[in-house]
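Feature request, filed as a ticket because there's no other form

It would be nice if the structure record came with a short human-readable summary line next to the tokens. Right now we just get the raw output. Example of a typical job, pasted below so the devs can see what we mean:
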Amino acid sequence: QVQLVESGGGLVQAGGSLTLSCAAASEHTFSNYFMSWFRQTPGNEREFVAAIKWHGDTTYYADSVEGRFTISRDNARSTVLLQMDSLKPEDAAVYFCAARITIRPATIRVAAEYAYWGHGTQVTVSS
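Raw output as currently delivered:
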């Protein structure tokens, strides 16, 4: 079991930057969890954004954010960050932090495969 709390969302102009943070609380070591970010807009399913392996050695990105977003983690602080640069209006969404213990590579981008979720943080991008 792990509790996830996102922060750092807000309003930013197109072209600007934001850094989202996800703080985890668990009786288990944070490095046991494979961590991801998803986003969701009204009426749509949650969309994969980025993921990072247990010790941060491998990252994955959606094509739409590759080169603009960076995911990282600090296992000592039980946090995962999402640095978002060159933001576009289409990046506006509620961003969710998600965790799972084991993975099948084919399902990294599948929201239903994640057992633990935060409540989300709103990102608004003005044009």
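Something like this underneath would help us a lot:
The chain has a mean pLDDT of 96.
The chain is about 0% helix and 50% strand.
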